[in-house]
Every structure is written in C-alpha cells, then in structure tokens.
Amino acid sequence: MGSAEDDSLDELAHRVSAARAATEARGETFYQGASRVHLAAFPPRERWDDWVELSSRAWPTREERHYTLVPTTCFNCESACGLLAYVDRDTGQVRKFEGNPEHPGSRGRNCAKGPATINQVTDPDRILYPMKRAGPRGGGGWERVSWDEALDALAARIRAALAEGRQNEIMVHIGRPGEDGFTERVLASWGVDGHNSHTNVCSSGGRTGFQFWMGIDRPSPDHAHATVIYLISAHLESGHYFNPHAQRITEARANGAKVIVLDTRLSNTATHADYWLSPQPGSEAAINLAIANHLIQARGYDREFVRRWWNWAEYLTECHPGRPVTFEAFEEILAGLYADFTFEFAAAESGLDAGVLAEVAEVVAGAGHRFSCHSWRSAAAGNLGGWQVSRTLFLIAALLGAVATEGGTFPNAWNKFVPRPVHVPPHPGVWQELSWPPEYPLAQNEMSFLLPHFLAEGRGRLDTYFIRVYNPVWTNPDGLSWMEVLRDEDKVGCFVALTPTWSESAWFADYVLPMGHGPERHDTHSYEQYDGQWVGFRQPVLRAARSRLGAPVSDTREVNPGEVWEENEFWTELSWRIDPDGSLGIRRYHESRERPGEKLTVDEYYGWMFSHSVPGLPERAAAEGLSPLEWMRRYGAFEISRGQGAVHEQEVPQAELAGVSVSPLGRVYSAAPPAADPNIVPAGAPPPDEAGRRAAGVMVDGVVRRGFPTPSGRLEFWSSTLAAWGWPEHALPGYIRSHVHPSALAPGQVVLLSTFRLPTQIHTRSANAKWLDELAHTNPVWIHPADAARFGVGRTGDLVRVETEIGHFVAKAWITEGIRPGVVACSHHMGRWRLDGGPRGAGGMMATVGLSRGDDGWQMERRAPAGPYESADPDSQRIWWTDTGVHQNLTFGVHPDPISGMHCWHQAVRVRPAAPGDRHGDIAVDTTKARQVYRDWLALARPAGQVSPDGTRRPRWLMRPLKPSAAAFALPGADRDRP
Ligand code: SF4
Fold it and tell me: Atom 6, ligand 1: which residue's CA is nearest?
C-alpha cells in the first residue's frame, strides 16, 4: 500500500494525463511543465538536452524556447552550489541560471547570488581583452595586447627569476580559490613556494580553534539531524556554506530543533533563532566556557567519549606529573579548570543575563549527540584570541560526544573529497618568508595582509606578482599601504591582475588579463555540507553545450566573450613558455600522458581525474554509456558516499599493522613512509612523527583505530603543539580577552563590528551584478538609539565621522535597536571606488573619487556618486541609487593575532557627528600611523627563532596549502637564537 504522498502523486499524474489528452484532442501541444508531473520544481535530467519553455514575453502567443541545460558551479561564494545554465539552442547564448537538482550539496537551490551569475556574464563593464599598462603605473594609460605578447613577457620574467635562484620573487595571491589544488600544483611544478591566500583576513581564526582539537581545520555540522544548532555567526543568511547549510537548518527547525545564535547584531539569522544572544564583542569564548562548565559541574558530559577520545592522559603526563594517569584524576582536575566560568562571570563579560545563559546551557545539555555547531568568521575573525571562540565551541561538542554523530559535528575532511590530479610535482625546496614569516610559526595561513609592510621594510621584493579573484587594496585592512607598495616598481617588479572586472587593485597592475566568471572556466571542488562526500565540476557552459551539439571546443577562448580565457589553460600555456624545451623540469607536469610531448588539455586533466581518482564514478558513468568526464559534463556533481559516520572509530585492518610501533600514549606508527605525499594538502591525513613515520592509528582500549590526524591521534583538549611552540598558557581551550574588551577601550571609544556580510553581496565581485546592486548597495553605520543620543547624532541618514587609530571615514548613520549599546557595526561589502579618470569598473556601484596625499597622510574625497550611464545594457540607464556606501577597511590598521595569524578585524573607534565640510564617503588615512600599528602588533609575536623546539620554522603537521620540502622547514642558522 502506498503512502499518502504516493497517492497524491498518482492523482496528479492522472490529472496530467487527462489534461494532455484533452489538449492534444484540440490539436494543441501539451506542455508538461518542469517534470514528469506538473508543478515539480526542476527539469528532470533526462530532458536536459531539449528543455522547452514558453516565452513569457510572447504571451499570449505560445512561443517555444528550446534550451540545452548545462550544469556548472556557482562561483559567488565558497559554497559551490550547482547551477544549470539555460543555453538557448537557437542563439547559442545563456539566457539564465537556475539551480542544479542533481547537486547533492545544494539540491537545486540557490541564494540570490546564484541566478545573478547571468549579470556577471553579460556585464557591460567587464574586461574582454588582455591589457598592458602604458605610461606610469597607476597613471591610467592602457593598451590592448595579444595573449601571446603577455604570455611571452611573463614567461621570460619567471624563467629568468628561476634561473637566477630568485624563486621567492614569484607569488600568486588568491582571493576566492573556488577550486581544489590546481594553482598549488602549478606553483609546485615551478619549484616556488609562491602561494598566498586571503584566509588570514577571512577564516583562519575559526580554523585554528578546530585544528588544534581535531587536526582538521573545519567543522562539518550535520544540521539537518540536530536537535540543537549553535551558531556563532549569521549562518542562515550569509555564514559559511550558507545555502547548503541554511536549507538543512531550516529542515531541522521544521522538525523541532532549537537554534541558538550568538551575534551582537540582529541579523536575519538572529530573527529566526529560538535564542538570540547579543554579547559584548569578544566575550563569546567566555559564554562557551560557562556552558562547558555547566556540563562539567553537572556531569552532563559523555564520560565514555571523553575517556576514549580526549588526550587527557597526555595532558596529565605533561602538566600534572605528580598525579596518577587515570581518568578519575583527570575528571577531578577538569572539574576545577573552568570553575571560574560561572554564568555570572560570562554575564559580566558579555553583558547578557546570567539566567538566560543558564537556560541556554540547559538546552545545550539536552542535545546529547545531536548538537551541531559552527563558528567561522564573525567573532573568531574579529578579536585578539578569536581562535579560542571556535576552540571553546568545539569543547562543548567534545564534552557532549557530539563528534561525527548523526546530528553532531564532523571533521570536514570526512565529508570532503579531493581527487588526485594526473601529475603531482614534488614539494618546492624553498620557503617564502614574505608569506610565512618567522614571527608567526603557528599561523593558520599566509600572513598575507602584512605583505605591504614586509615589502616596505625590505624583507624581500617580488619580481612577478599575480592576483586572482582578489582585490588586495580594497579587501584588506590598511589598503593604502597596499597601494603604496603596488605603485613602487622596486618592490613589485611586475604586477599582473587575473580578473574578469576592473578593481581598485587592477588599476595599479602592469597587465590586466581577463579571466572567466564561474560559467566560463573549469574547476573541481568538494565541501562539507552534510555527512557525505561529493565532487562538483565547474565548467565553461558554452563549451560543454557546443560539444553536446556536436562541435567540440579545444580552447575555452573560442566560446568565452572577447578574448576571455580560463586560468587552467592559461597556467598550462604559461608553464610551457617558461620551460619551452623541458630543461627546467617544469614542462613534464603539464604534458599529456596520452600524447607524450604534447600539452595537457583540460579534457585530459579532468578526464584522468574522474577516471582514476573518484571512486564509483567510472561505474556510474558506464551504466549510462558515458565516460566519467562526459558524465560530469552532463550532470555537474557526483556523490561518492553518504553516511561517513565516525571515521575515527574505524578499526585499522590487521594488514596495515605489520611492523607498527606504539608510543607510550598509544599513537601507532607504521614503519612504512607515507604512501603518497602530494603537495596538495591531503585533508585529514595524519601527521608523520619526528622520524617521518606515518601515523597509522591510535590505540583505544586495546584496539587500533583510525583516530584523528593530530599528533596524539586523539582529540586534543591539551595541545602539545601550542605548549611546545611558546604558548603553554593557551594550550587548553580558554578565554583571551579581546583587544576591544571594555577594559581596553579608551574613554569615549566603542567597538566597531566590521566583519558582517550582506546576504546578496559577494565581497568585491557583486558590484558587477546589477540585480544584486539594486538589492543592496550601501552600508550605513548601525548605532543604538542610546548611543546616538550620546554621540549627538539626531536621525538616521545623518553623517557621522568614525575615527580609527589610523584615520577616519564618513558614513551615514542608521539608528536601530538591532545592535548592542556601546557597539556600532558597518558591513564590509560596500564603498567601491574608482579613481577619477580611471575605467568605469562597475558603473552602478563604484563612486568616482579623488585621492591625494598631504602632510597628514592620504585623503580620499568623493567626486561623483554612482548613477545612470550609457552602456550596451539599457538597465545601466535605470540606476536609481547614488549611495554606494563607504570603504571602511582603508581606515583599519593591521592586527595580526600572534598565534593564529588572523587579522583581528574589530576596531576601537570614536563616533561623532560629521565635521563641517565632511562629505559622505570621505576617507583620511595616515600610513605612518599604520606602520606603527603594524609594529605594535608584531611585538606580540613569539618568533620561531625563539620558541621552535626542534629548529624548524613551523610544526610540520600543521596544514599549509602548498607544503615545501622537509628541508625547507629548517630554520636558517642565523634565526636560531633560542635561549
Ligand atoms: S550560497 Fe549562493 S552564492 Fe554561494 S554558491 Fe550557493 S548560490 Fe552561489
């Protein structure tokens, strides 16, 4: 007997049949709708070759439009949701993008930014041809050049640098990666440690806390099956993996799950929470510890999980040598460790009500193993010591035993899959100190935002500097220090912007090379969005459509607009030109395996990967008579597995245990070296020991289990790494008072939250998406009414001057009760600008500014707002807004956390009514003061030369996107002045 749902589907199918018969009896064509039955949400995949819709513009005439539907992946945030391009079979053009129902992460759904991809493709302001600077750098002169000319010039520079041993003068700086390992592979093939990222201005604070627990730097919450969801950010609208996560949080809520949101600002997510906690910024770890303490004092934790999986024995051995190494002794100590973190203490730190915190703690305690949690940017990215926010958050999950359980929180590597590529070059033998400086041996990622200061103080120079999906002048704090070094040809010899659009940074480039948007390029990716593993395939949709229609394409430029290319083909071509005869050993990593001596094509690269490295895909494809590449080109994503479960509990098979040795604390090492050691970080691979032996597992109650990829093999409540590398006082989950703690504020200062996103914006790229611009285009300063009265700000819309330690910006006020008193907030998305006389950039979102330097530093004043303009798109004449916000990041000094390396974004500011003569968007910055702020924070660091326990620059087990050889980890002798 069928279910009620089956019955209603049968009924529907019956009605559809009847409607079809009636329509056809009238001699008319029957339109079945988007599925086998009416009103289904998505086109069924068997009809993607010729999908028919009626033209809405032709109504009431029934005019058919025939589409071939081609999957690709959205590139407008890190979630990598599936898209379907609707390619018009008559015109060969993409008419729209909608969700790909075959994608296991996004399941056919997208946020507003997904469909807005069509705006980026048809953007009238995009860059269509390679451009070369003509005249002085930043002077605004450009000339069109051929790809050949640009490639030859860059190849000659790079070849000379490599030949002269200047490997560290080559750098590729990446904003949104949107792929898994291609760029790292290229750089490894050149033998350079030249990968730089944006992660230390983004998520490394959040990552660090998870990494020191699990050896894996991201959580993978199973929101859909949780009963309590604890979020430190605005995850339903804009947080990490927000569409794939938000739809699963929504399902859980429909099933009765409670949602707890810590966010100082009343986000859309907070409005949907059962408990919205608006804490004093920086107090989040204290709240987490009060909840943890409640679980400990009430014995509300999973004792068996803690006993089996925490490294308590190591902690006792190292930190309490006089105590017996028993779990009972540990529990006794644990009971005292967090006893000071009462609800009253957390209330005093956070400004929240102790009773509410106690109630929330009870809700958390009731979750058991169904406690899913996430913290990513937000507080972890805002505060000195912010990494302890995620470390204390995971403490709660680890106490509950809600780790890799249904409804719990997984290590991300278990819910992610990175296929191995066709060629894997060796680790580079050099170490790039401009990205991995000795002061920050534990930094989670490259110290990217300090680059201008390192260059300015002569730590090195860059011969050839690429940026890709990255706008450092605008995205980073202290952007005018960036501008100063990017204009200096002694510091940056050749600056290359790989970009689809003009930006504040591209303006200072020597070459601007047009790269494709999401549907104009190839990438693979896989992200943790539920308890399963999938691989997604981004592809140039017109290339795939043409191939499907029988006209294969061999170079993506053939189908992209103008001479827009894709990076993968560009990097392969550039690598060949750097090493034309193969004598540098580079070319072989970019050669075909099938046709030795010929260039590796993207078809072969991905064809090999899908055929050899994705379990189950070849069989699945064969069942449909397709090659694995054809299958991925057709459907866009493949689910490898579902229900990974508790990988740490898996027993290591006896066959893997021959010749192993076991450390006193149970770490099991194999005599064999690591089987595969690719440069692309194998997420979740256990670290080798000092002798290079491979960690094979961990002994738990006499059984060797997979465990976690930490030095101990267990969850590290106490981090031997932090203890050994100079930070023993922070080796346990703890609370570090923020640089914006109330006690650190001067009289009259308040905290500025500058880290939040708008749900419809894409950092630096949404300015070229007109629908998104219309939805959100400004960033007023949120001010509580009590503060507005205190500051003397009368009304919403009044201008305020926000003063930071290095300058000020002038913005509009938004007086709202959606923010704590004593805290103001401003979204980081807005305030795009173009220099007067420069390229239009993004006509609807960039104000025209003048920039000058006087005795007091830099002054930026607004010369013209955004407004209507003529272009190939008639909509550009319909721009009705002029207020595009303020670029606040320019006025922030750099704040590197001494442990995680994260830039601590929150600012101590003064807010006052604008001065006479102030105009909206005005900026003033003194980069001399910025240099002093850099030095002040640098002084907090503990350099490897002083703390390294083994003469290396960095613990080898910590992740690096591109890992140098073991030899490159050795500290140069001159740096080894340890006491
Ligand atoms: S969440 Fe939105 S922007 Fe991000 S990948 Fe998905 S559709 Fe694109």
Answer: 81
